[in-house]
Design brief:
This protein has 365 residues and is mainly alpha-helical. The chain contains 16 helices and no strands.
Length: 365
């Protein structure tokens, strides 16, 4: 699923490398330090292996929008003496976080096309990577620019540190006992902290000595973290309609946020196109796909909510073989009657094939 390298202009690319650990002497891999000292921000985020191509590491309908955000939007902000580096890092964080949607889109397409839950789960590591890289860029913006003087800035950095540590796939306690709900709660907490900062900025921004546009800038990731949390919760509950709505809300929020910050920005067109592609393809696919998975789980004596275990397992790279086997189907039930495979259930829905015909060329482009 790796994407081709696309060179971004030097200003944004240099910051992208730094935000993702590429500018650190430690490189992309963490080196164990003093176990008695708490890890620094640099140590935490140096563990994260961020792909620094403009499109991000996972192909999907948001590729062109991500490229425009990094190559044009971030550079337009970087050339603004007011917002400068902080603005660049925030926009890079938004572009990285949009890879969560690309990875989820790929998961849905692969589940429907290949009917192999174990293979499709590999795409979920892209969600983990996108969240980590977005957190790294946002933490860099909050810690190394004028944003550090904002009320709640330290709380934001603490929230981002907790997210990066909680989603560390090398940790056997990955995501904690509640799995997916732990992750979505952390995303919502970051959204709440960012919203607190945005509210403070709205009272008297001049008294804080921050440039015009800071409030509009930070409102974009505040909404994005909230929308991603709701999207993941909806997927974990196998609620196709709610997931479709959450995906549309996610892209709409970024589109409206960028428009408020930079009217007629270059990313507006690709974001609108991505939203249309999701609405006309992936959103229509999710309802029948999730219904088929729900049927498989019910036949295996499991509830819809346990699909969250499949997601959490994929985020950790460990998977959940038992749930994956039930979703795939084809094994015998307690009464000895074989269950249909996921492929057999989806084959009875002609609309799935029509949607995939439209989606898969888009994915390969």
């Amino acid at each position: 699923m790796s994407k081709q390298w696309i060179a971004a202009p030097l200003a944004a690319m240099a910051l992208l490398l730094t935000a993702c650990g590429g500018g650190s002497d430690t490189g992309a891999s963490a080196v164990a330090g003093d176990s008695t000292a708490p890890p620094s921000n640099q140590d935490i985020f140096a563990r994260i292996d961020c792909n620094v191509s403009a499109q991000g590491p996972f192909a999907g309908p948001l590729d062109n929008a991500q490229t425009a955000l990094i190559e044009q939007t971030a550079n337009a902000i970087g050339g603004n003496s007011d917002l400068g580096d902080a603005g660049v890092n925030v926009i890079i964080a938004v572009a990285r976080l949009l890879d969560v949607v690309d990875a989820l889109a790929t998961l849905g397409q692969n589940l429907a096309a290949n009917q192999d839950p174990r293979a499709a789960a590999s795409e979920l590591l892209g969600v983990t990577q996108a969240i980590q890289c977005g957190a790294a860029s946002l933490a860099d913006a909050a810690a190394s620019t004028d944003l550090v003087n904002l009320p709640f800035a330290n709380q934001l950095i603490d929230d981002l540190r907790s997210l990066a540590l909680g989603i560390d796939t090398s940790d056997p306690n990955f995501l904690g006992a509640s799995g997916l709900e732990d992750l979505t709660t952390q995303l919502a907490n970051i959204s709440n902290t960012l919203s607190d900062i945005v509210a403070v900025l709205g009272v008297d921004p001049s008294s804080l000595g921050l440039p015009q546009g800071t409030q509009a800038l930070l409102r974009i990731p505040a909404e994005l973290f909230k929308d991603l949390s709701e999207t993941l919760l909806s997927i974990g509950r196998l609620d196709g309609e709610a997931t479709s709505n959450a995906l549309a809300t996610t892209i709409t929020g970024v589109l409206e946020g960028v428009a408020a910050l930079l009217p007629n920005d270059a990313a507006a067109g690709p974001l609108a196109q991505a939203r249309e592609a999701l609405a006309n393809g992936l959103a229509r696919l999710l309802v029948p796909l999730f219904d088929a998975i729900s049927q498989q789980l019910s036949a295996g004596g499991r509830s819809d909510a346990e699909f969250g275990r499949y997601l959490a397992g994929g985020f950790s790279g460990r998977g959940d073989p038992e749930i994956e086997s039930i979703i795939a189907g084809g094994d015998g039930a307690a009464d000895g009657v074989p269950r249909p495979t996921l492929g057999e259930l989806l084959a009875a829905l002609p609309i799935v094939g029509q949607i995939l015909d439209a989606l898969l060329p888009l994915k390969a482009s």
